[in-house]
Amino acid sequence: MVIPPAAPSAPPPQGGAAGGPAKPVPRRPLGQREQTAWAVLQQVPDPEVPVLSVCDLGIVREVKALDAGVEVVLTPTYSGCPATEVIAQSVHDALAAAGFGPVTVSTRRAPAWTTDWISAEGRRKLRDYGIAPPSGSAAVDDGPRPVAIRIHARGVDCPRCGSAQTERLSAFGSTACKALYRCLSCREPFEHFKPI
Ligand SMILES: [Zn+2]
């Protein structure tokens, strides 16, 4: 994959601070059209969580400017997720509308997408939206925290008040990728983007 040097929100870093497995990163500099294409994709929302763009979600693996047109490689989030077709169409339409000419959207299923690919910016947007971001190796580093004894080994913090005292009400929220929780401190229900 390639990382646009000047894009406002780059694709998720591979390897580095996120702690994920290191992946080879091509060193080819991005052309102007590729940078512009990334900027266009930054505006394409995920249909299930519209607060996130497809870039925030980390599913855009590659953007290649061709002599004529542009090629985009997506990795679907959940296999069989009906949103995948919608996303591919949205990506195609956004780039075509931006004047990129023939747009090819292909999918790459390996390596499989995980919620670790959601960018730090995406996690912040989720929390601001009232959805607890997925926990995992790429979870947001909020800096030093007081040590708290949690009921569950991997608790889900309330996105509203930050309390770790939460309970799961249902394994499924408004979509299959989210679970329904309730905060025991502020009493508000919220959704949790399940880590995979
Ligand atoms: Zn709360």
What string gives the helices and strands in order?
A: HHEEHEHEEEE
Helix content: 10-25%
Radius of gyration: 18 Å
Look at the helices and sheets and give the structural class: alpha/beta
Looking at the structure, what is the overall shape? elongated
The number of strands is 7
pLDDT averaged over residues:
80
Question: pLDDT below 50 for ≥5 consecutive residues: which ranges?
Answer: 1-22, 138-153
End-to-end Cα distance? 21 Å
Within the largest sheet, what's the order of strands?
4-7-6-5
Bound molecules: zinc ion
Give a brief rundown of this model.
The protein has 196 residues and is an alpha/beta fold. It has helices spanning 32-41, 54-57, 83-97, 120-129, and strands at 60-65, 70-74, 103-107, 131-132, 166-170, 178-183, 189-193. The protein has four helices and seven strands.
What topology emerges from the helices and strands here?
Layout (H helix, E strand, L loop, with lengths): L31 H10 L12 H4 L2 E6 L4 E5 L8 H15 L5 E5 L12 H10 L1 E2 L33 E5 L7 E6 L5 E5 L3
Parallel strand pairs: 2-3, 4-7
Antiparallel strand pairs: 1-2, 5-6, 6-7
Bound molecules: zinc ion.
